[in-house]
Write a structure and sequence with these properties.
globular; 42% helix; seven-stranded parallel β-sheet; NAD(P)-bd_dom_sf; 6 helices; 7 strands; SDR; alpha/beta; Rossmann fold
Length: 237
């Protein structure tokens, strides 16, 4: 594979925001590996993405809650393409309930995926990103600065993620690695078992986040938008 290629690893890339980012990057000529806890889902999404540009996408079964699984995903990218330029930490889950009703299992899963999972993704990829002077992009949420009733677990995970991401940015920029936190508001995805419909036209669309990631990658190396808040421009009254 030629040295001029660029590659990306997107966690939770089989649908929603992750898939929208994968579409944007492939259109930019970047080879993309998407992960899912289901190999079937990963393969089906990769097959769909390869209709944009044949051979530009692969699917990997991987669980962000497991460091070895993340290390294996990075190794797959390196074995396939020889380098890793971009990591988009997108995998996430949401459990929403008053604290008295939130189960310990729901709390643990939210923290493990939304926060610890990003830490594992970073630990697995940081050496490869040093080699390419790469970019680590976290998909956080406006819930990382705006708390709400029923958001005990989700707010905790996203507040923590924003802190992790911003501190990580300061840790690795001397190595030539950029880190950006993207904090979307309402996005029209399947998140929380929601089924997107025409009623979601006012929301941010997955391809909009894809556009932001594409634009970030194209920024001059001297400039780093470290934290980006994204809202629907015309929410319902």
């Amino acid at each position: 594979m030629a040295e001029s290629i660029k590659t990306a690893l997107i966690t939770g890339g089989s649908k929603g925001i992750g898939y929208g980012v994968a579409e944007a990057l492939i259109k930019d000529g970047i080879y993309v590996a998407i992960t899912s806890r289901s190999q079937k889902s990963a393969d089906e999404a990769a097959a769909s993405l390869n209709k944009i540009k044949e051979g530009f996408a692969i699917g990997i079964e991987s669980d962000v809650r497991n460091l070895e699984s993340q290390q294996s995903a990075v190794k797959t990218v390196l074995d396939k393409w020889g380098q890793l330029n971009y990591v988009i930490a997108n995998a996430g889950v949401g459990h929403f309930a008053p604290i008295a009703e939130l189960t310990t299992e729901q709390w643990q899963e939210t923290i493990d995926i939304n926060l610890t999972g990003v830490f594992f993704s970073a630990k697995a990829s940081i050496e490869a990103l040093k080699e390419t002077k790469g970019y680590f992009i976290n998909i956080a949420s406006l819930a990382g600065t705006n708390f709400f009733a029923g958001g005990t677990a989700y707010n905790a995970s996203k507040f923590g993620l924003v802190g992790l991401s911003q501190a990580m940015m300061m840790d690795v920029r001397a190595d030539g690695i950029k880190v950006t936190t993207i904090m979307p508001g309402s996005v029209a995805t399947e998140f929380g078992d929601h089924k997107p419909s025409e009623k979601d036209a006012w929301k941010i669309q997955p391809e909009d986040i894809g556009q932001i990631v594409s634009d970030l990658i194209k920024m001059p190396s001297r400039t780093l938008p470290s934290k980006i808040e994204v809202r629907p421009s015309m929410p319902p009254k």
